[in-house]
TrEMBL record:
<keyword id="KW-0964">Secreted</keyword>
<comment type="similarity">
    <text>Belongs to the glycosyl hydrolase 10 (cellulase F) family.</text>
</comment>
<comment type="pathway">
    <text>Glycan degradation; xylan degradation.</text>
</comment>
<dbReference type="GO" id="GO:0005576">
    <property type="term" value="C:extracellular region"/>
</dbReference>
<keyword id="KW-0732">Signal</keyword>
<protein>
    <recommendedName>
        <fullName>Beta-xylanase</fullName>
        <ecNumber>3.2.1.8</ecNumber>
    </recommendedName>
</protein>
<keyword id="KW-0119">Carbohydrate metabolism</keyword>
<dbReference type="GO" id="GO:0031176">
    <property type="term" value="F:endo-1,4-beta-xylanase activity"/>
</dbReference>
<keyword id="KW-0326">Glycosidase</keyword>
<feature type="domain" description="GH10">
    <location>
        <begin position="1"/>
        <end position="317"/>
    </location>
</feature>
<dbReference type="GO" id="GO:0030248">
    <property type="term" value="F:cellulose binding"/>
</dbReference>
<keyword id="KW-0858">Xylan degradation</keyword>
<keyword id="KW-0378">Hydrolase</keyword>
<dbReference type="GO" id="GO:0045493">
    <property type="term" value="P:xylan catabolic process"/>
</dbReference>
<feature type="active site" description="Nucleophile">
    <location>
        <position position="239"/>
    </location>
</feature>
<keyword id="KW-0624">Polysaccharide degradation</keyword>
Length: 318
């Protein structure tokens, strides 16, 4: 078969990519697979650009691990915050200043260096940031995190404006999960985008994480993608994996292949869906087993770096 990135490009997409993380980069067999440009043209840092990694103490920025990568994930998120960013520590005005400083410093550090695709690194065409990650609860209400409880809805526009000022060429995204089906959470994200556009706040794209379960991939994904591109946005699959209850069986692996194919086909069919990223490429380094008890085998390569049926499902989807 052609390769995942080759198939994505042939379908008119900008990239196919994978998340990765610094500790894995000592595994030479793993790095050899990740470096195959026929499969991966884009990298998302799994952890090393998050707030706890980049600003562990107030105004002390560290970019050592993040500098390994050329991508932007993420600026403002309720998880992986350093302890100093805690509800009750700051009033509204101070936290606004903290968010602005964090976003402008981190995005500014990577100005002209981050890139959506390896091709783009060579030609310096474009780049993107997940500026705000996971703002909503599953019922479509705002997540009750330090940013929303202290600043209110306006923290999103604040972070986006700081990012735009720090790197005017970067594409600015909001990224979330469980917005891949029609429902309250997707509607809340659509309404947020419309409100940002009405305020003139910079928003270029919405990322669909796509952390799915075998046999349960959403059926309205393509129509949701179309609802967002109809607003003039680009969209992307940003963190795709499709987990199963272990142990894996031949039947589950076949269903997983079909599921990957269906998800990728939805992106293929929407011109404004610019690319797809899997949340690492091998089960060896997947976040799933440590996060969802009893589940795993979510990625297209197994723990021994051997391709699974899902690999062919992705190629077929494009
Ligand atoms: C995960 C990482 O993969 C793990 O290593 C870390 O322990 C927790 O975060 N949504 C996101 C990603 O936007 O940043 C998360 O990554 C997975 C869920």
């Amino acid at each position: 078969t052609a390769g995942l990135a080759v198939a994505a490009k042939a379908a008119g997409k900008k990239y196919f990519g994978s998340a990765t993380d610094n500790p894995e980069l000592t595994d030479t067999a793993y790095v050899a697979g990740l470096s195959n440009l026929n499969d991966f043209m884009q990298i998302t840092p799994g952890n090393s650009m998050k707030w706890d990694a980049t600003e562990p103490s107030r105004r002390t920025f560290t970019f050592t691990n993040g500098d390994t990568f050329c991508s932007g994930h993420n600026c403002v998120w309720h998880n992986q915050l350093p302890n100093w960013v805690t509800a009750g520590n700051f009033n509204n005005a101070t936290l606004q200043s903290i968010v602005t400083t964090h976003c402008s410093t981190v995005v500014g550090h990577y100005k002209g260096k981050i890139s959506r695709t390896i091709t783009d690194i060579l030609f310096a065409l474009t780049d993107s940031w997940d500026v705000v990650n996971e703002p909503f609860n599953d019922d479509g209400t705002w997540r009750d995190d330090v940013f929303h409880t202290t600043i209110g809805d306006g923290y999103v526009a604040l972070a986006l404006r700081a990012a735009r000022a720090a790197d005017p060429a970067a594409k600015l995204y909001i990224n979330d999960y469980n917005i891949e089906n029609t429902g309250a959470k997707a509607t809340a994200m659509l309404n947020l985008v419309k409100s940002l556009q009405a305020q003139g706040a910079p928003i270029d794209g919405v990322g669909f994480q796509c952390h799915f379960i075998v046999g349960q991939v959403p059926t309205s994904f393509q129509s949701v993608l179309e609802q967002f591109t109809a607003l003039g946005l680009e969209v992307a699959i940003t963190e795709l994996d499709i987990r199963m209850t272990l142990p894996s069986t031949a039947a589950l692996l076949q269903q997983q292949k079909q599921d990957y194919q269906n998800v990728i086909a939805a992106c293929k069919n929407v011109a404004g869906c610019i690319g797809a990223t899997i949340w690492d490429y091998t089960d060896k380094y997947s976040w799933v087993p440590s996060t969802f008890s009893g589940q795993g085998a979510a990625l297209p390569w197994d723990e021994n770096l051997v391709k699974k049926p899902a690999y062919d499902g992705i190629v077929a989807g494009f």
